[in-house]
Specification:
By secondary structure, this protein is α/β, with parallel strands linked by helices. Strands 1, 2, 3, 4, 5, 6 and 7 form a seven-stranded mixed sheet that branches. A four-stranded parallel sheet has the order 10-9-8-14, sandwiched between helices. 26% of the residues lie in helices and 28% in strands. The chain is globular. The protein contains seven helices and 14 strands.
Length: 337
């Protein structure tokens, strides 16, 4: 009961009060960014800012009021951060407990010169100034590039509703032809067809970037199918969703490997992903003058196909065991290996 009283006294229980606190802080933040004013007075001494391409082209984390304020202010100005507002499509500002700390959590949206973005900030009551609220954690992330929006929902392609030519070619004919790359080169090659490879290929395809996945396995999903017989994923399904198609609500919390392998196979088909199995990238050289790669791909029949993509994306996994050379005294070397 005492904890409840303390929470009411500190945070209040009125959603309108939460909204007022958040909007007041966000307005002060917006004015500071617009006018180039330092943000120090809006953050707790121990605070954190995490940026995932939302105000820069990097993944960055800063901590401490002065460091956060200085870098956040400079990045916001350089990126043209504007139109900062509470994200009404997400849950309303609410009291939550994060890392054992009661905080007022809010989703917000904003724009930059090149992207539409979202973020989360968490406020705590200032212990030194009753009634004031300061930011504890601040997160920014890019959602989509302006002018390169994904072809989803209202932006979905219309497709061909009716044709007088009943002979085709139909959708399947076009998909088979597109995946061969007989008459063109892909803009991007993704090496590896697991979660990461499928996800990035699906995103790029919806952005209109011609993308080819290559994988040395015989079937899509073999990266899971070929593991030990009774394997299930060790983390829960909600952190393993692929873009656009969440797992069915009937699925178990811990997904069996063969169930996931079948999902990968159907996902590639449904998302219209170009995928070469039993194929391997044997070499790649970059031509800086043309801005293209010369990528040699060994196909299932042993033939070498040379492609000229603009980008090569390595999606071969983060859990592999590194192959380190056996060199005497290597364990005494203090530099990177």
């Amino acid at each position: 009961m005492q904890d409840l009283i303390t929470e009411k006294n500190t945070f209040g229980t009125n959603p309108a009060q939460h909204e007022s606190i958040v909007r007041r802080w966000l307005e002060n933040f917006h004015l500071a960014v617009r006018d180039g004013i330092q943000l120090n007075d809006l953050f707790l001494p121990e605070c954190y800012w995490r940026d995932t391409l939302g105000l820069s082209w990097e993944l960055r984390t800063f901590s401490g009021k002065d460091t956060v304020a200085r870098n956040l202010s400079a990045s916001a100005t350089m990126a043209g951060m504007t139109n900062i507002r509470v994200d009404t499509s997400s849950s309303s500002p609410q009291i939550v407990v994060r890392a054992g700390i009661k905080t007022l959590e809010t989703f917000f949206s904003y724009d930059t010169d090149v992207a539409r973005c979202r973020g989360i900030f968490r406020l705590c009551a200032d212990p030194e100034r009753p009634g004031d609220w300061l930011c504890w954690t601040f997160f920014t992330a890019a959602v989509e590039l302006i002018g390169f929006e994904e072809q989803i929902d209202r932006n979905r392609p219309i497709g061909q509703s009716y044709s007088r030519d009943f002979r085709g070619p139909n959708w399947l004919d076009k998909r088979i032809n597109a995946s061969t790359y007989i008459d063109r080169d892909p803009t991007a090659i993704v090496v590896g067809g697991g979660q990461a490879g499928l996800s990035i290929a699906a995103r790029l395809t919806q952005l209109g970037v011609d993308t080819l996945i290559i994988d040395k396995n015989k079937r899509i999903g073999d990266n899971w199918r070929n593991r030990y017989h009774a394997l299930t994923l060790h983390n829960q399904l909600q952190v393993n969703h692929l873009p656009y198609l969440p797992f069915p609500p009937t699925w178990p919390t811990y997904i069996p490997k063969d169930m996931l392998a079948l999902w990968f196979e159907s996902y590639a088909a449904v998302m219209e992903l170009n995928f070469w199995t039993r194929s391997e990238l044997t070499s790649a050289d970059y031509d800086s003058n043309q801005g293209l790669w010369k990528a040699n791909v060994k196909q299932s029949d042993g033939a070498i196909r040379t492609l000229s993509p603009r980008h090569i994306i390595m999606a071969t996994g983060v859990s592999g065991i590194p192959n380190l050379p056996k060199i005497d005294t290597l364990d005494h070397f203090r530099g990177p290996v």
